[in-house]
Design brief:
Blueprint (H helix, E strand, L loop, with lengths): L1 H13 L6 E5 L5 E5 L9 E5 L2 E6 L8 E5 L14
Antiparallel strand pairs: 1-4, 2-3, 4-5
Amino acid sequence: MILRLALAASLVLAAAPLYATTYTIEPDYTQAVFRWSHLGFSNPAAQLSQGQGTLEFDPANPTRAAVNVTIALSSLNTGVPALD
């Protein structure tokens, strides 16, 4: 999830104008996928979708960049109803 957000942020920033801007994250194009190790026997995955938020960036002051994303837990899908 963090890797995808970092990649998305870097792509947005590569095309960023040279002034401070706030970008809106579109819910229909946002998802996070994550995996974990289950005692070393399997690696289940889950997906969260419909995230909303903003990305703020000022090329003159990149240390003040911020990403704010909210994803409803009700969008969690593991493919195993008992885990959702």
